[in-house]
Design brief:
This protein has eight helices and six strands, in the order βαβββαβααβαααα. The two termini are 30 Å apart. 41% of the residues are buried.
Amino acid sequence: MEFNLIITGVGGQGGLTLSRIFGNAAMSEGYNVRIGETLGMSQRYGSVLSYLRFGEEVYSPLIEEGEANLMLALEPAEALRNARFLGKDSVAVVNAYPIHTATTLVGKEKYPELDEIEGAIGKICPVYMMDFQREADKINPRTLGVLMLGYAYGKGLIPLKKESLLEGIRLTLKEKLWELNFRALELGIDLAKA
């Protein structure tokens, strides 16, 4: 068994923390885990990309183009930017909450329409796209990644046990943040089943 995950977003959204939660969850089930990261100006809303691979025998964190099993995209334009990792056997879960860059805000670049992003990714693989940020805001804005993790789990896209995901949260976050993130995981699961 081998599982390839791409987590993409912009600095400040918690993508790196999410990769640690997922990695700790996989390790708690005894899998070998490899994580690699590509960071833009992560403190300034630059691109952040995490590669996470786990399985019986995994030696490199890098995922070849078209080989991701799952993409969790915390920002829609970043999903489009990293669509090269998706293939016909992939699934994308995309947050439909744009974060505009300075160049799109001043009109130097056009931010793609959300339906264009969904359509382009949908030509490659199945895509679940919704405003996960709005849902996370009901608990705490910083729970976005865990909520999306719960959604992917609820859709049957993650080959790990729920107990392992909870353990990943415990091993990664400070204890005072556990309850918030447990609630976010449950809300994501509920959204997937709605």
